[in-house]
Design a protein that fits this description.
four-stranded antiparallel β-sheet, mainly beta, 0% helix
């Protein structure tokens, strides 16, 4: 079993930056793919970014590509989401989660993730 705790959210002006962290418990972290999702009020949970177990492969939604960077430090059981050039439409609760499939082709589907964190609020003011 894996427990996830996100942090690093907050209020920032448009154009600013934040770095989210997700700390995982459990010895299997270094063998797991990880993802970041977000959910704005009244909207469905949306894929943001995915990183494979080694960090060698990353994937992003079109809406954040070029602005956000996902990374991980397996020695610290932590995955990060560096968010630059933030926009008001990035406002949401951000969640990290564990990817449960061996095939990386389905990284953008929430149903293929398990062990979700509690989320961290990101608010971008215009």
């Amino acid at each position: 079993q894996v427990q996830l705790v996100e942090s690093g959210g907050g209020l920032v002006q448009a154009g600013g930056s934040l770095r989210l962290s997700c700390v995982a418990s459990g010895r299997a972290f270094s063998s797991l793919g990880m993802g970041w999702f977000r959910q704005a009020p009244g909207k469905e949970r949306e894929f943001v970014a995915h990183i494979n177990w080694s960090g060698a492969n990353t994937y992003y939604s079109d809406s954040v590509k070029g602005r956000f960077t996902i990374s991980r430090d397996n020695a610290k059981n932590t995955v990060y989401l560096q968010m630059n050039s933030l926009k008001p439409e990035d406002t949401a609760v951000y969640y990290c989660a564990v990817y449960i499939l061996s095939d990386p082709s389905y990284y953008n589907m929430p149903r293929n993730y398990h062990y979700w964190g509690q989320g961290t609020q990101v608010t971008v003011s215009s």
